Amino acid sequence: MKSQDIRAKFLQFFKDKNHSIVPSAPMVLKNDPTLMFVNSGMAPFKEYFLGNAVPKNNRLTDSQKCLRVSGKHNDLEEVGYDTYHHTLFEMLGNWSFGDYFKKEAIAWAWELLTEEFGVDKDILYVTVFEGDEGDGIPMDQEAYDFWKELISEDRILMGNKKDNFWEMGDQGPCGPCSEIHVDIRSAEEKAEVPGKDLVNLDHPQVVEIWNLVFMQYNRKANGSLEALPNKHIDTGMGFERLCMVLQNVKSNYDTDVFTPIIREIETITDKEYIPLVGTSRGLSEKETEQEKINVAIRVISDHVRAVAFSIADGQLPSNTGAGYVIRRILRRAIRYSFTFLDQKEPFIYRLVDVLSKKMGDAFPELISQKQLIENVIKEEEASFLRTLDQGLLLLDGIIKSTSGDTVSGEKAFELYDTYGFPIDLTALILSEQELKLDETGFKEHLEKQKKRSRAASEMSTDDWTILFEDSVQEFIGYDTLEANVKIARYRKV
Ligand code: ATP
Ligand code: MG
Ligand code: MG
Ligand code: MG
Fold it and tell me: Which region is the signal sequence (predicted)?
């Protein structure tokens, strides 16, 4: 099944259960001081859960563009190295605002996966909140009982507070959740570790696909919990992961969400993408070299999406706030293509064409903003490549003036700080010339500089990242005005 059809089928399934299909909210938030980018499906519905606004229909379904590159959810460093964390991804969701609860949410998730999509029950596992004595929250027996009607009990695993209890922040709605995991290991891989207790949810080929959150408590200012008068359902399923399962491949990058972009990268760069998924043995030298190319190709195909969607939403790369995050993502892609794909000229902008063809139906902003997206990416690429060129010359000078086998941390820092030359690239080039980098010295200078300017005005409070674009401010707490109304307070630093 094609990815377009998978998305449509999900939405239609819930539409048939009286949900209204709503479009994705913009990913870049302009008027929410507590969050830079939407990082989960629930973010745009926050006001409904807090009871500050009322939806037209108390059942909604959507596919929300999410970006997880800052604050509580920061997957950036994972991206490219594993095959199922992205910077930008779509979160499919169904929502109940004070309407249906656990029973229906669980039954429908199961029906959709196993009957509509035909996923084999024998590769599914679910988790249930085990309870937390210290916090006085009981185990989620209700969810357990609903699940055991559907799945054999040895496939229901207990999860702790970290994975199976969701909170919006220090206060507000919260509740236990149940997650659905898919074991995509091949029969041979399973045979390697026999036994029924083997299922290890941390195994890279056992992938979490769907999180069902049951909002049933309210956390009060004094930390205690009370039952919510209106209980809510918030679910989030990773669209690209679902496509991986349904298209019967081992990596999100092998789904049709990514393959057209990857083919285009191969054509332009004349490199091949040869994934080594599921290899538990060590890699040969040749495979290690290939894997660097694979990582680079995954990084670029992921990052071009994040950057393109952001620009389409009106967030251009810049030197502050959200714009700086976008610039860093794009520069990460450029660095990988420069180093591992030998790309010395702009080319990432050329991927926007395939991307907008592939995703334009679901996200028409990619078509209407295409020209702008291409121009902005191209200009950014050209300018950062010039930086890299200059940096290489400077580094050459530094190397020539180094007498021993170790390059000074201070010099490397200067290159990084003044010229924007990435430190990992410095380290790589030095190692190629059998030189060392004084990493301790570098870190010392970095620390000193961080203390000087607390430029990253970012502070994470659970699901909300406190951030201001123009002035650097520090979050200092909430003022409680009336019940349920919280005013965040900031001070300039
Ligand atoms: P993981 O444990 O894999 O990092 P999560 O528990 O952080 O996922 P949730 O916050 O529960 O994820 O989000 C709901 C769903 O969104 C997940 O079950 C997963 O399918 C998907 N998802 C989460 N993070 C990513 C990501 N970085 N890239 C792609 N899909 C993601
Ligand atoms: Mg995560
Ligand atoms: Mg998880
Ligand atoms: Mg989860």
Answer: none
Exposure string for 300-321, b = 16+ CB within 10 A, e = fewer: bbbbbbbbbbbbbbebbbeebb
Overall number of domains in the chain: 2
- One domain, residues 117 and 216: yes
Q: Which of 208, 257, 464 is the pocket-test mutation for ligand 1 (most atoms within 8 Å of CB)?
A: 208
What are φ and ψ of residue 182, in 5° steps?
-120, 130
pLDDT at 485 over 90: no
For residue 462, being part of any structural domain is answered with: no
Domain extent, residue 281, equals 261-372
Same-domain status, 339 and 228: no
Is residue 155 domain-shared with residue 268, that is, in the same domain?
no
**Closest ligand 1 atom to the C-alpha of 208?**
18
Q: So what's the ipTM on this one?
A: 0.99
Taking only the tens place, the pLDDT of each residue in 362-391 is: 999 999 999 999 999 999 999 999 999 899
Looking from the CA of residue 73, the nearest atom of ligand 1 is 7
Q: Report pTM.
A: 0.87
